[in-house]
Every structure is written in structure tokens, then in C-alpha cells.
Amino acid sequence: MKEATVKPDILAIIPARSGSKGIPRKNIMLLKGKPLIYYTIKEASKSKLLRRVIISTEDDEVAEVSKAYGAAVIKRPFELAQDDTPSLPVLQHVIKHLEETESFYPIIIVILQPTSPLRTVTDIDGSILKFLETGCDSVVTVCEAEHPINWIYTLKRDKLMPAIKGLKSATRRQDIYNMYRLNGAVYITRRDIIMKEGRILGKDCRAYIMPPERSVDIDTLLDFKLAELLIEEGKSIGL
What we know:
The protein is an alpha/beta fold. It has 6 helices and 11 strands.
């Protein structure tokens, strides 16, 4: 991997509220003996490009676990930790806090969800380098979609209806161009897009492709089991 010759102030934010509808207290649930958030902290700490890594949480236990693994924590107000709280005000809170209390003015923001435990420092720094080298507004990580959109349907009673009207049907995977989905592992954007434009991703958004075995996004207990299996089989680099 090439080293960036210029390293602007790059801030990584790991949003980690305590609540979760699917899996209670998911971010500190043990995965192979370690809290889920540990894996993101560990890989982020290896980065040669990140200037700072900050955990955003309202929860004392999440904060203590994060600090135990060497991460800095900014406590967010409880009103920014509800089920319906969007990500944007959470990111704005961290950036504003650092600028106002520590005079730290990040230029680039990297968002690392703790629900992507198999993402590695290679994915983090590779995404940042792509951002720096292309001069784009944003970079997101993707992986090849498990199923083509041509195979996705809705049901009207029990009748199959194409999810997207007018989309050409296909019966063989090899007849369909590769499709990619967001995997939630890394989001990179400019500070001003978040703070001035009030959105997370800019108009010029590029993709950094990750392999499916590092793209597990923990949302259900089945996802946990899959992540455990991949770690055991050594398919996730560095874990």
C-alpha cells in the first residue's frame, strides 16, 4: 500500500450507543471472548493515516470498555442515542466538541461502525488513500452483492412482483453484470459536508471494494455466528 505524502487531520468516529433493538447491548457483546467494539478499536489503532480515533457513546459501560482498549471517548447526550437518532447529528456533536474544547479541526471524517468486526486496517487505510488520491467528496466500502437485484421481488398477496419495475429479468447469474452493496464498514467524507452541507456523503462518492468475508455487518445473532466462524477459520486477515 502506498503511503500518502500529505496527511491532513483525519478523524475517525466510532458511534457506539448502548441500545439495539435486534441484539441488546450489541456493541459490547462478546465475540470470540472480546467485546464487539474491540475489533474496530484494534484495527483503527493500527492505522498510519488516522490522526485521532474517538468513540461516541452515551453509555458508561461502553465508555469504560472502550477506554480499557485505549480509545478516547466523548460522551453524547441521551437525546442523541435514541432508536430514531440519525447519524448526522451524532457526527456533528463530536466534531463541534473537538473544535470548541480542544481546538482540533479535522478536515476528513472517517466513520467506523463497531458492527463491522472483520474490517481490517488495510480496508481503513486503503479507503483513506483512495479518498486522498482521487480528490473525491466521499468514499464508502462495498462488497459484491450476494444476489443480483434482478432476483429481488415484493409480494402482492402471494403474487411475485419485481422490486424495480422495468428491470430486465435474468435466470442465470452469469447473465448479470456484477452488482455491489454498501457493507457499512467504512465511510469517509469531508468535514464541511457534515458541518456546512448537513449531510454525510458528498456528490462525488467513490467505492472501495472489500471481500465478502470481511463485510459481515452484525445485526442479528446469525451474523454473530458467521463472524465467529470466519474468525475461527482464519479467513479474516489479522484476527
